[in-house]
Amino acid sequence: MTGDVILRAEGLKKYYPIKTGVIRRTTGHVRAVDGVSFELLRGETLGVVGESGCGKSTLGRMLMRLEEPTEGTLNFDGADVYSLKGEDMRRLRRDIQIVFQDPYTSLNPRKTVGDIIGEPFEIHPDVVPKAGRRKRVQELLEQVGLSPEHINRYPHQFSGGQRQRIGIARGIALNPKVLICDEPVSALDVSVQAQVINLLEKLQNELNLSYVFIAHDLSVVRHISDRVAVMYLGKIAELGDDAQIYDHPTHPYTQALLSAVPVPDPETTRNRHQIVLQGDVPSPANPPSGCRFHTRCWRAQPICSTTEPQLVEHDDGHGTHRSACHFAEPFVPAS
Amino acid sequence: MTTTTTAPAHLHWEAKDGLLLEVEDLHVEFRTRDGIAKAINGVSFDLRQGETLAILGESGSGKSVTAQAIMGILDTPPGYVTGGKVKYCGTDLLQVPEKVRQTVRGAEISMIFQDALSSLNPVFPVGWQIAEMFRIHRKMNKSDALAQAVRLMQRVKIPAAKERVSAYPHQFSGGMRQRIMIAMAIALDPAVLIADEPTTALDVTVQAQIMGLLKELQEESNMGLILITHDLGVVADVADNIAVMYCGRMVETANVHEIYGHPCHPYTIGLLDSIPRLDMKGTVLRAIGGLPPNLLAVPPGCAFNPRCKFAKDQCRVGDAPPLIEAAPGRHSACYFAEELLSR
User: Fold this and answer.
1) Domain A5-95+176-323 classified CATH 3.40.50.300?
2) How many helices (H) and strands (E) does chain B have?
3) A262:B281 CB<8 A
């Protein structure tokens, strides 16, 4: 199923200016995304995990070109996304769509479900002719597990999980190739969360979609992803397939993050070695020098505060995968 | 209000045999324009010193309302306690005058809320807000109260507490704000601490810090802790006993080790099956079908029956199944609990 590269990001950066004083002089920058490169293959799911403020949502918006980059290039199926203009850009938007986190604020409360899901066809009229639109919307509703009769209802008549299904239907309306899911299940209850994850997997198989799945919940990301990128303060700390990241991570941040994830099993969770990180994530306006994680890292050496580690291949005990740490090695609990 | 059976001077609450809180057959309803929503239908549980009880449930299951009813901070109207008892050290708090309740709130039973930013007052320094507990409940003067606030901030491990005592809530990170909330909650050494989703808004690494802190504080003072959450993972780590709520009822209660290994209510089984787990990568999640019912139109019989794969005709009529003992120390509100247990 997975094959060639569909989306290639190189050195993506997004700095937001901090303006102070009466004349709004720029006094600094928030480095939300600071040099991110990755490839997304056709039909695969790339999970992006990280804590709040690590830049994962900004990255998602940049992939949609909802944010113009400060630096870097994005290549979609051979086209340079950031240099496209006018009609070409509009055409390209069809192929990359997004599902937002909050199903309560991302749907217009004054529009019916039919209008919401049908709106993409107003902008891209050639996808479905006007006469067939209503039917297509009903098909979409059915595809995401809602009843076609719901077409005239308003968003408030649906529960959170159902609204997220509407958001997904809108996302796939134009037959995109890439779907960016920005925390699509984090606002949902546990029992409903599983339904939406299963739906996303079903749609991926049916439509051969590629997903960029952004989330803070590591268990959900592991479940759905083929490959995972762990972000910390605007950079990718570690990148690999799901077994590489979850079973033998080499970056200390990934190791700490994984050990902090609660496991719903008292026998496992009470006997494992937990790494509790001290302090909070530093401000992206003033990131630490060298390796950004060195202020909270237990493996930090003098070199970590001066030289920034590159995202390169490191031995993980079972092979190699990319990790941005000077001292990347598998974690051995000191027992 | 009935005539006072206990004098307001009754300030020495003492737990008999370590039993702090007994909630018996609590009922709460919300009277709304669209009808009466029965948020809690007969919830009973006990809490002992040093015990951690986790109340688990999805949104709308009544877990937060239970906490509010115990604290006596239910919004009335629309919420009304319509029956049951909340006994603290043997005295029914629902029967005592508001004056007495005020002395219980904060000093004996205290609460931490989910969203620390909106629970703190943005226009006062955090030290002032923590010190308020001492000024009002203990009638301390300003400088003594502030010194106590610094001591508490150190106790919840806020770095540079002395300097940060005059900082405002927005100057703290999410984790630090939650620590301030905890400092306020433990200020008067309560015997019972209710934590309503204390880590839901936090990142995993910070979540681990906060849960560790709560556990430590509990061990120091032998508090009874009620942990309200929707996250099955968080509670597996710290809870002693677990009560699962669905639609305003407790559907299963058990020791933490038993409930994860051998759940005996279909809802608990469904919940455990539907969460993606780090230590297991499956293909398809076995999701619970359907949605939680609207509280204004709860289905007859067992409220879970439309979503239950084990449901039979018996489950769809009459009253909800009672919480019965399925095995020693284990209770389940399912007619087939024993069968499920021997699966």
Assistant:
1) yes
2) 12, 12
3) no
